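Subject: Sanity check before I submit

Could someone independently write out the structure tokens for this chain? I want to compare against mine line by line before I put it in a report. The sequence has 121 residues.
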Amino acid sequence: MVTECGIPPGENFTYVIDTTTQAGDLWIHGHVHSQLTDGFRTPFIIHEKVKPTTYDKDEVLYFEDWNERTFEDMVAIDAKLKLADIPPLYRTMLINGVNANTSKSLHFEPRKRYRLRIMSL
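---
Independent answer below. Compare away.
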């Protein structure tokens, strides 16, 4: 886990992560106020030094709940739902960061091998 103070506006910060002893399909996200809820999240792939098997193409397919409301609106709605013992409502889902109704299809060619990294953010 990496935890740092917020980066001030106009500044930058470079993370140096040792990947010599690890590999895998991970995801990263913000923890400041509404960053996670408002979409500050993404897959983070650390590739193996040696492929575990042979494949022609590597595809990442990730799913995430999405609501067009802002974080502040969701907090107010969530407070009311908790009083009624109803879970938060997400009206749609994103596939690879795009509305599920408009996302692009994956195309597979015969006799090719694919590695699919399927993630739920």
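---
OP: Matches mine. For the report I'm noting this point. The longest strand covers residues 57-66.
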